[in-house]
């Protein structure tokens, strides 16, 4: 029997990989897309014929109700968000509306229209913020450090609450940073690989960055969308950390990226206070034991392979 899935945020990095995965598994895939002056379908251009797009917005309850009425999904993946932490200080209200309340609206649409559907909520390691223990696991207390982190904590608890209040199948994936050649250009990994490729091709002379000592647990987005799907195949809903269990600094990422094209980062990187954040999350490191033991998830792409994959892709683009 063919299953039907609705993905909010299908035009984003994760949405595009998840859509590919679900198509491979034989799903009917529906994606929610918002109206923009120019459609942002670059990441899903190659599968546009295989998926169905429904217009809607996480700030509009009617459009979400309508979307679930149209596709009657068995699985709903709520990946849509204002997902850039930096922007959450300049647009805190919009971030709260979309990233926080938006998740509640998705839960409401499912509760009212298709209560048997399983819901995946894209929760984030940013909820741990000023970390209360290392490594961070499912029971580590939250201490968000940005309006984005606050909004994700709201969405996390809304998901738990709908599970407990209405017996809905609603799971949180607490995912640590995951990257790919499809990563948005303002996130530090892609900003670095794009910048290095530009410098290597003679199009730029410097790369301006913020805190080089920030530590992140970085994995490959293609591996992480598999965990999302696995979570919804379990007997019951639950919350899981997905991470590699390895932390690296922004500086290490920069070093490997420049050395891939035979350059020394110290000759090109300029630290610019403009890219420092009002409050920082300095050391994120996840413990994925529960996801590994419950459904056998494992990381396939290593940190070094990830950096190299992203550099190769950006070099191709500029060549
Ligand atoms: P992206 O920023 O690449 O994608 C975000 C998606 O949300 C886009 O499709 C965007 O659409 C959509 N969107 C934004 N605002 C709205 C709105 N008002 N209504 C409907 N759709 C909207 O994020 P990622 O793919 O990297 O991340 C996916 C999810 O996982 C996000 O919720 C993110 O916060 C979360 N997350 C990500 C992690 C990561 O490392 N990547 C780690 C942990 C959590 P458009 O194309 O129109 O802008
Ligand atoms: P993050 O990702 O905030 O972890 O959120 P980002 O790549 O933006 O920052 C990672 C770290 O790098 C430092 N940094 C810089 N960051 C950016 N963007 N630009 C710079 O020039 C720069 N220089 C240093 C930052 O200070 C930070 O410490 C991502 C998003 O995908 C969220 O949606 C998701 O929830 C979390 O990962 C887990």
Automatic annotation (TrEMBL):
Listed under GO biological process in this entry are: 'de novo' GDP-L-fucose biosynthetic process
Q: What is its EC number?
A: 4.2.1.47
Give the catalytic activity: GDP-alpha-D-mannose = GDP-4-dehydro-alpha-D-rhamnose + H2O
Keywords noted in UniProt: Lyase, NADP
Instruction: Write down the InterPro entries for this protein, in alphabetical order.
Output: GDP_Man_deHydtase, NAD(P)-bd_dom, NAD(P)-bd_dom_sf
Please give the Gene Ontology molecular function terms for this protein: GDP-mannose 4,6-dehydratase activity; NADP+ binding
- SUPFAM superfamilies (alphabetical): NAD(P)-binding Rossmann-fold domains
Q: Which domain of life is it from?
A: Archaea
State its role: Catalyzes the conversion of GDP-D-mannose to GDP-4-dehydro-6-deoxy-D-mannose.
- NCBIfam families for the chain: gmd
What the entry lists under HAMAP family is as follows:
GDP_Man_dehydratase
Give the family this protein belongs to, as stated in its UniProt record.
Belongs to the NAD(P)-dependent epimerase/dehydratase family. GDP-mannose 4,6-dehydratase subfamily.
Report what the protein is called: GDP-mannose 4,6-dehydratase
Q: Which organism is it from?
A: Methanogenium marinum
Task: Kindly list the organism's lineage.
Answer: Archaea, Methanobacteriati, Methanobacteriota, Stenosarchaea group, Methanomicrobia
Which gene is the coding source of this polypeptide chain?
gmd
């Amino acid at each position: 029997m063919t299953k039907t899935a609705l993905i909010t945020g299908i035009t984003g990095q994760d949405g595009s990989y998840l859509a590919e995965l679900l198509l491979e598994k034989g799903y009917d895939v529906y994606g929610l897309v918002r109206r923009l002056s120019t459609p942002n379908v670059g990441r899903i251009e190659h599968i546009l014929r295989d998926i169905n797009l429904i217009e809607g917005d996480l700030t509009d309850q009617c459009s979400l109700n309508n979307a679930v009425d149209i596709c009657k999904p068995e699985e709903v993946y709520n990946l849509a968000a204002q997902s850039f932490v930096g922007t959450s200080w300049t647009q805190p209200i919009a971030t709260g509306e979309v990233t926080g309340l938006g998740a509640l609206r998705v839960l409401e649409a499912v509760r009212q229209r298709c209560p048997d559907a399983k819901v995946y909520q894209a929760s984030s390691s940013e909820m741990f913020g000023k970390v209360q223990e290392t490594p961070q696991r499912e029971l580590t207390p939250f201490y968000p450090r940005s309006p984005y982190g606050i909004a994700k904590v709201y969405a996390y608890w809304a998901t738990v609450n709908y599970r407990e209040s209405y017996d809905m199948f609603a799971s949180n994936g607490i995912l640590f940073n995951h990257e790919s050649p499809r990563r948005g250009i303002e996130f530090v990994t892609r900003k670095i690989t794009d910048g290095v490729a530009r410098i290597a091709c003679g199009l730029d002379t410097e790369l301006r960055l913020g805190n080089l000592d920030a530590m992140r647990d970085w994995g490959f987005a293609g591996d992480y969308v598999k965990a999302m799907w696995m979570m919804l195949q379990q007997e019951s809903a639950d919350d899981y950390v997905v991470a590699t269990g390895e932390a690296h600094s922004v500086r290490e990422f920069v070093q490997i990226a420049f050395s891939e094209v035979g350059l020394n980062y110290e000759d090109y990187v300029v630290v610019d206070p403009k890219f420092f954040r009002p409050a920082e999350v300095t050391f994120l490191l996840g413990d994925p034991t529960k996801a590994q033991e419950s459904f056998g998830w494992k990381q396939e792409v290593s940190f070094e392979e990830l950096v190299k994959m992203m550099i190769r892709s950006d070099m191709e683009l500029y060549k």
